[in-house]
Batch of 2 targets.
Target 1
Amino acid sequence: MITDPPNDTSHDPDVPEEIAERPWIHLTNTHDVEAWIDNYNWDLQRHVKQGNAAGAGICFRLAHGGEIFLHTTSEGDVVLDVTPDAEWATPVITAATGVETPHARIWLLPGDVLTQLVLGLSGLIASSRAVVDHQFNTKKKQRITW
């Protein structure tokens, strides 16, 4: 008789799978982006414990260096943390969203630009992964939810 080892959680639906980085598939239209958003929202919810969504979101690793962390607030606004190595991508963010580049690395964007943002960044992204505990470098603490 074969049994699973005692520490094997592969069949336990209450234990989240390890968050894996995934190669990026270039998105070419709004339908693709909206389907991607729905899929990642579902995936992220699997990894976030109930009531503990502060800092949860997506990390985009850019093909030419740097990372962009994307989160949404409970009000539906978009918060980006653009790492110093990813500052080269800020003109694309501005072009896609119509929002001026901030003086800090944290961007606060209205929620209605999320689809255009992901579509605009799509050609620059090498991979993505869900994150459940990203710390923002802001003076004011914000509740970040996905």
Note: The chain has one domain: 22-45+53-145.
Target 2
Amino acid sequence: MNARLVVIGLAPAATGALRTGRIFTGDASSKFLVSALYKAGFANQPISESKDDGLTYSGCYVTAAVKCAPPGDKPSKEEFRNCAPYLDAELSLLRHAKAILALGSLAFRAVVDRERKSGADVRGVKFAHGASYQLRNGLKLYASYHPSPRNTNTGMLTEAMLVRVLEEIKTGLAKESRDD
């Protein structure tokens, strides 16, 4: 897979990915995220309703830190710990990845914990919407609020805010390609 951007959400939603079989599909969070990915040029269409809807990503891979739908949408530390090897395996297979976009502080923490376990110095790496950090092996970590209805309905995250982060990532990826 030639994905240069890896988008990491929290966990499959019971009404979305768990029901449809594809992460960020068929729920309010997916509508918000996929529309932003489309506007930034990472998706071929602005909708994600079913795994047969024709959606394809361009240079982008979408996954979750936790692999099962947690009770109350709040994964336990044990769930993060149990799922960490699967996220690690996914990221290890994505050899062309140069950027990770963590959606929400918990997905961000999963990436930082992975870095810490590998021996990387992660002091000073803190979640803030729009923040970015250079990681080991040429990866760059970006942070965004999660596109949950709780965040989008209150205006904590607007589509323009998410598109801005995605465009920053796209610009960084393009610059890196020119520098190679």
Note: The mean pLDDT is 90.
